[in-house]
Amino acid sequence: MNINDPKTFVDDFMQYVKTKDPLQYEFHQAVEEVVESLSDFLLKNPRYLHSKILERMVEPERIIQFRVPWADDQGNIHINRGYRIEMNSAIGPYKGGLRFHPTVNQSILKFLAFEQVLKNSLTSLPMGGGKGGSDFDPKNKSDSEVMRFCQSFMTELARHIGQYTDVPAGDIGVGGREIGYLFGQYKRLRNEFTGVLTGKGVEWGGSLIRPEATGYGTVYFAKEMLETIGESFENKVVAISGSGNVAQFAAEKVIELGGKVVTLSDSSGSIYDPDGIDRKKLDFIMELKNIHRGRIREYADKFGVSYLDKQRPWSIKCDIALPCATENEINGEEAKTLVENGCIAVAEGANMPSTMDAVHHFLNSKILFGPGKAANAGGVAVSGLEMTQNSMRLAWSREEVDNKLHSIMKNIHQMCVKYGTESNGFVNYVKGANIGGFVKVANSMMAQGLV
Ligand SMILES: NC(=O)C1=CN([C@@H]2O[C@H](COP(=O)(O)OP(=O)(O)OC[C@H]3O[C@@H](n4cnc5c(N)ncnc54)[C@H](O)[C@@H]3O)[C@@H](O)[C@H]2O)C=CC1
Ligand SMILES: O=C(O)CCC(=O)C(=O)O
């Protein structure tokens, strides 16, 4: 591997990664973004190269794959595939969510686990990185079907996790209901009540603010970025994608800070409400999505606003964009449209929602761009605080947790500024987050020997 020239170094390293797993495109994308912004730093700090830290970091410590058989309400048998990627435990037990979605495969989970390692490091809490899930689709399943699936999934996963080993949480398709079923089955199998999962209900060991944390944290991070140019959310038009956990609470916080949220979406399309989604309309969305598990189109029907069938919301003019749905939901063309329409800031609530072309366009346009591993770290940060409360066997107030979340997001922002400020004063938050997250993990790996 050429270690003298940054560009050749990136190409050589990516060749190495692609040769090992040629079909893992999402994983390649996540690694390339990181290596691209680390290359200069690594060439100036060759001890990391000599110790092959990066080669070690792209190789999961362990991958667990298993069969998940379950029966539907009619007695038909289904077989899904379950996974847990235990990526890196240099700074703490593996920590990261579980995703239940038909697109789940090893490439998606490896990209998420790789991002999680750096993200968790940025929170400054002692958490390693992992991710897991299944190709199970919770859509249109009854509560009992979801419960039977979760019980079967946990029957195998329980052998591999534990409060000191690996602590899963939620992600797409895994919310409070699923965490409840998973926790119940773990407790039954192990006969122990421990903080083995986060995102638990507050009555049984969960932390206040965990449901809100990712969305709130994304807005806190965006607020910090805006302050660097003397701006705020007040009277800003905000486009948000998704309508799940992260999108709902990002919208709630934007409304609280005086911004106007004009879009939300799901996998079928987007709604555009030029008057803005207010508290009452947001309550409708929360009930629609969290209780009736309906489609976002129903919002357009109820409030008489436009529905953009099979479209993402990025053609709508906005000042600030918060992608909060899924990976690769903003491509290069959409990034161009956002910037041309006057968007001054993008903060990623979702994991890797911008393609590489989109990231390059945002950076070249010199707008404020907060990458997911920094901007959405609030969720896992409050998961870390849930682990702390479980260990101490006490529960902090809503205000206490929110204050800690706020200060963690400020620290992450500062870390990005520290490592990402370029000679002309522009803050490259991608570079800042990648270097800031990398240093602590890399130093810990060096200290722990060749493992
Ligand atoms: N829940 C959490 O604490 C955290 C979540 N994230 C990320 O935030 C994003 C959203 O996750 P959650 O809100 O938790 O999940 P969720 O399951 O509550 O909501 C997901 C949303 O994305 C939409 N969606 C899914 N696939 C889509 C597609 N192909 N096209 C358009 N929309 C699609 C769904 O309709 C839904 O509105 C994901 O990228 C997740 O990895 C990141 C950090 C923490
Ligand atoms: O709370 C957690 O452990 C995980 C959150 C998560 O999956 C993420 O940050 O992408």
What is the structure about, briefly put?
With 451 residues, this protein is of the alpha/beta class. It contains 17 helices and 12 strands.
Describe the structure.
- InterPro entries: Aminoacid_DH-like_N_sf, Glu/Leu/Phe/Val/Trp_DH, Glu/Leu/Phe/Val/Trp_DH_C, Glu/Leu/Phe/Val/Trp_DH_dimer, Glu/Leu/Phe/Val_DH_AS, Glu_DH, Glu_Leu_Phe_Val_DH, NAD(P)-bd_dom_sf.
- GO terms for molecular function: glutamate dehydrogenase (NADP+) activity; nucleotide binding.
- One of its GO terms (cellular component) is cytosol.
- Belongs to the Glu/Leu/Phe/Val dehydrogenases family.
- By secondary structure, the chain is an alpha/beta fold.
- The chain has 17 helices and twelve strands.
- It has three domains: 52 residues, no CATH class; 132 residues, Rossmann fold, CATH 3.40.50; 165 residues, Rossmann fold (3-Layer(aba) Sandwich).
- The protein has a seven-stranded mixed β-sheet, with helices on both faces. The protein has a five-stranded mixed β-sheet with strand order 1-2-4-3-5, sandwiched between helices.
